[in-house]
Structures are given as structure tokens and as C-alpha cells.
């Protein structure tokens, strides 16, 4: 593998290994953006004085969605934007609001979990699972802050049943009662952690008699969850357990993502869908800004938007089907305008802009070849896949394909086309909803991978570089190509 190809593939491994949850993915992107001069701004502030031509900025919503953009030095209100969207979330198991459970007459410590998104849940059995997410912590001055936490140790496990005890041909299981992690043995917990034991006894006593402390509308976090787990979370975040007011914690596979295959042609990893596109979007916009004069002749704005909640339909405050992207584009569209130019700047910007909706695609599977349409069989390491669907499950249309092809030609990046069989179900993504909300030209695309929504997916290691090159060229060349393909 060429050095640069390898570097990008390894860069992705670092990104995905540091990003077990959407909160961490946002942080991973933020760190890379800050390093090259992107400055954090807030939705709640007035941007008029803050933003400058030639400036680079980012903002987050809920800590799990991030938008980053660079303003061309020749930007005028109403100009077009090169937009690129992806998503930060993946199917996962999440700790329930009250998770402190026991199995087998109290001898197993178990943790109640909820399914998030459409995971291939059978792949979560017999994996070494860690915990990560965000804590809301009470500070000494009475304010509450959010702190990320990442316990990179296998403290949970969902064991399968031995084949000797269960001869079922196909693996079927109940998602409430059998997809249910164990976290330890009560006997060990009692013997080895006397402090926890004391605390637990104290909590039980308090529950019976009342603590005599202030009224508490909800039980303490150490009562709703195993105290030992709360203690581990507190230690990992460097806070004290009593100050954790609430948390959003996901389970993840502690096995690190890695290169694989005889010639390192694969990436074996969790969350390829869609941290692969989140990573390439981040590095793509950064690459496009590398030259010191990158924004000198730029008339537009280059923007990436990495959304949470795609896997559950996007209809949330930080999802793609929210007001977030329209609101940001509207605020930017009127920048440096006057009363006259600003009046219809938003509508002018939308129609001059384009959105690349980037989400992973399906590589052909050698053992299930019949599931794929005969002439549309995307391969790994053969470049990004443009997704097309006559029923608009994908937003791609001809002007979009032609423009993307022009960008790819300049970048020397191969492209592929994908359509599902008429007798098959089809996925969807953020492209259709955003194109409807914005009215901009939109294309759906992504790198080809196997086993989408498994806890350990397979992708192509060369495709990281393909996507970054393509995205970087898109950002650099969009303003120049924009008015060459007009369909009124
Ligand atoms: Zn996806």
C-alpha cells in the first residue's frame, strides 16, 4: 500500500478507536479542526461581529452533532455553499435509566440495556464490552457540566448459551431477557469491595428509613445503577460519584479497529457506518484548506455537518431532520449583506448550493451474491459509491451525478453506482430529508462495506484516501463548477 494510503487508513483507525459514542466522535472531529485553526462558536450568540471572511469555525448541538465551515474571502450574501453531511451515531446498546439488576437470585450483577437503532444484535454476544458516553456532573458552584467518559476495559459481556443446552438451528433470542449483559458476580463484589458493600447497605437503609437529607425527586444515580459501575465511571471521568446527576452511557466493543486481509486491504472495525464518512468529511474539508491561499478566491462557504440520530430516523433536535442545518445556512447566507441583499439571500444561497449526503454503502458479498442487482455490485477499494433509487430513498439525480463525476475526474478518484433489486428492501439516509428541507442539489454516496450494523464491520482500507481526496476536491472546486450544471 502506498504510504499516503496507509496514513489515511491508520488515521481512520485512530479516529474510530477514540470515538465509541457520538459525543466522542464530535470531540475527535473538533480536535482535528481546532488544530488547523477552526474556532468554536455558539448557536446562542450573535455571529455578525464574530465571523470574518477567510475564517474557519465550528459549533456543536447537544455535544453529539457538529457543524464546521470555512468562509471564502470573496464571499457575498446569497452565494452558494458546498455542503457535506454524514452521521456520528451507530446502532448500540444503551444503559437504561435504572440499570441495577441481578440475575439468578442475586448472584449475577446485570445491567439493564436498551437497543438503539437497528443493530445486528446477535453480533453483540460474546464480545468484550466497555462503557462510554457523557456524564452530567454537578460542580461546586452549583452549575452542571457535561463530561465525556470512556472505560476502555471489558467490564460487560452478553454470554451465548452453550450449544449442548440449545440445539436451535437459527439463533433466535429475546432482546429484553437474553440480550442482557452480566457485569460480575455479587459474591466477588461483596468480598472484594467492602466500601461498595457499605455504601450499598447504607443506600438500602436510606431507602427504608429515608435519609433525613433534602427531598430528592429521583433516586440517586448510585441507587439506580450498580454503585460499582457508577464508581468506575466517576474514576474514569475524574469526578466524584455523588456529583454525577445523570448520564447517557453506551456499550461498545473494546477490541480495537485494525487493518486486515492478506495485504491489509480491509479495515475491521465497529461503527464504519458512519464514522468512516465522518472522518473523511473532517479530513476532506481540512485538506481543502491546506494551502495558505485556499480561501483567497473562494466565493462560497465550505461546510460539513455530522449529525447524531440518523440510525433512529433523524427527527430530533440534533438530527438531520431538525432545523439545525437550515438555521445555520440561513444565518450564514446573509453574512456581510445589507438590507437589500439579505432579503432573499437565503433562497439564493440554497439554490446555488449542493449537498453531498455521505453515508456508507453496501459492498457486494461473495457468499450472498444473489442479493445484489446484477449490474450494480459495488466493490471495496474501488472508490465511493453513488446511491440511486427511483423512489427517492436516495436523493441522487442526474445533475448531481454529472457534477460529482467532474469533481472525481479532477481528483482522479474512481466512482461506482448502486441501485437495489426491485425485490429487495432499501436503506435510506439523510439525503432525501435534507434535500427536501433545503431544495439544494443533493447526491447520496458512501464507501462500500460489508456487514453494516454489525458490532464489527468490514471496509476497504484504500477507500479512506479515495473519499478524502474526493471530498477535498469537491470543497476546492464547487464554486467554480456550480453554475456549469444548471437545471431550472
Ligand atoms: Zn449510516
UniProtKB/TrEMBL annotation:
Gene3D superfamilies in the record: Aminopeptidase i, Domain 2, Zn peptidases
One Gene Ontology term of the molecular function aspect: metalloaminopeptidase activity
Highest rank taxon of the organism: Eukaryota
Cofactor: Zn(2+)
Gene Ontology BP terms: proteolysis
Entry keyword set: Aminopeptidase, Hydrolase, Metal-binding, Metalloprotease, Protease, Zinc
EC number(s) recorded for this UniProt protein: 3.4.11.21
CDD domains: M18_DAP
Catalytic activity, reaction form: Release of an N-terminal aspartate or glutamate from a peptide, with a preference for aspartate
InterPro entries hit by this protein: Peptidase_M18, Peptidase_M18_dom2
Keyword Disulfide bond: no
GO cellular component terms, semicolon-separated: fungal-type vacuole
PANTHER family per UniProt: ASPARTYL AMINOPEPTIDASE
Protein family according to the UniProt entry: Belongs to the peptidase M18 family.
Protein name as catalogued: aspartyl aminopeptidase
Organism from which the protein derives: Terfezia boudieri ATCC MYA-4762
Amino acid at each position: 500500500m502506498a504510504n499516503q494510503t496507509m496514513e489515511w487508513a491508520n488515521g481512520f483507525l485512530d479516529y474510530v478507536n477514540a470515538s465509541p459514542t457520538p459525543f466522542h466522535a464530535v470531540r475527535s472531529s473538533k480536535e482535528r479542526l481546532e488544530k488547523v485553526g477552526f474556532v468554536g462558536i455558539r448557536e446562542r450568540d450573535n455571529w455578525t461581529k464574530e465571523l470574518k471572511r477567510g475564517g474557519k469555525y465550528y459549533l456543536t448541538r447537544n455535544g453529539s452533532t457538529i457543524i464546521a465551515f470555512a468562509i471564502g474571502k470573496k464571499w457575498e450574501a446569497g452565494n452558494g455553499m458546498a455542503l457535506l453531511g454524514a452521521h456520528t451515531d451507530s446502532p448500540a446498546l444503551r444503559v437504561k435509566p435504572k440499570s441495577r439488576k441481578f440475575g439468578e437470585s442475586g448472584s449475577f450483577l446485570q445491567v439493564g440495556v436498551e437497543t438503539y437503532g437497528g443493530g445486528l444484535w446477535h453480533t453483540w454476544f460474546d464480545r468484550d464490552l466497555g462503557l462510554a458516553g457523557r456524564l452530567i456532573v454537578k460542580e461546586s458552584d452549583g452549575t452542571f457540566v457535561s463530561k465525556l467518559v470512556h472505560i476502555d476495559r471489558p467490564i460487560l459481556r452478553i454470554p451465548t448459551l452453550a450449544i449442548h443446552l440449545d440445539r436451535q438451528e437459527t439463533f433466535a433470542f429475546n432482546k429484553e431477557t437474553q440480550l442482557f449483559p452480566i457485569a460480575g458476580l455479587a459474591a466477588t463484589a461483596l468480598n472484594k469491595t467492602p466500601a461498595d458493600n457499605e455504601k450499598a447497605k447504607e443506600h438500602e437503609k436510606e431507602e427504608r428509613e429515608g435519609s433525613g437529607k433534602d427531598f430528592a425527586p429521583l433516586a440517586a444515580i448510585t441507587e439506580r445503577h450498580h454503585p460499582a459501575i457508577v464508581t468506575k465511571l466517576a474514576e474514569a471521568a475524574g469526578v466524584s460519584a455523588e456529583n454525577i446527576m445523570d448520564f447517557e452511557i453506551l456499550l461498545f466493543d473494546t477490541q480495537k479497529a485494525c487493518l486486515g486481509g492478506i495485504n491489509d486491504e480491509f479495515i475491521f472495525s465497529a461503527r464504519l457506518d458512519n464514522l468512516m464518512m465522518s472522518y473523511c468529511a473532517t479530513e476532506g474539508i481540512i485538506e481543502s484548506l491546506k494551502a495558505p491561499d485556499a480561501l483567497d478566491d473562494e466565493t462560497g462557504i465550505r461546510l460539513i455537518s455530522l449529525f447524531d440520530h440518523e440510525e433512529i430516523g433523524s427527527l430530533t433536535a440534533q438530527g438531520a431532520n431538525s432545523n439545525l442545518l437550515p438555521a445555520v445556512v440561513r444565518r450564514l447566507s446573509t453574512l456581510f449583506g445589507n438590507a437589500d441583499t439579505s432579503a432573499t439571500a437565503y433562497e439564493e444561497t440554497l439554490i446555488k448550493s449542493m449537498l453531498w449526503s455521505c453515508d456508507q454503502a453496501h459492498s457486494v458479498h461473495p457468499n450472498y451474491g444473489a442479493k445484489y442487482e446484477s449490474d450494480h455490485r459495488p466493490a471495496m477499494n474501488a472508490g465511493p459509491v453513488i446511491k440511486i433509487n427511483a423512489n427517492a430513498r436516495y436523493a441522487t439525480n442526474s445533475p448531481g451525478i454529472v457534477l460529482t463525476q467532474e469533481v472525481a475526474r479532477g481528483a482522479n478518484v474512481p466512482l461506482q453506482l448502486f441501485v437495489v433489486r426491485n425485490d429487495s428492501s432499501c436503506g435510506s439516509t439523510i439525503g432525501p430529508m435534507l434535500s427536501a428541507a433545503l431544495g439544494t442539489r443533493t447526491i447520496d454516496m458512501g464507501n462500500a462495506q460489508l456487514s453494516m450494523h454489525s458490532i464489527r464491520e468490514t471496509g476497504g482500507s484504500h477507500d479512506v484516501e479515495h473519499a478524502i481526496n474526493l471530498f477535498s476536491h469537491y470543497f476546492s472546486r464547487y464554486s467554480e463548477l456550480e453554475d456549469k450544471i444548471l437545471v431550472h
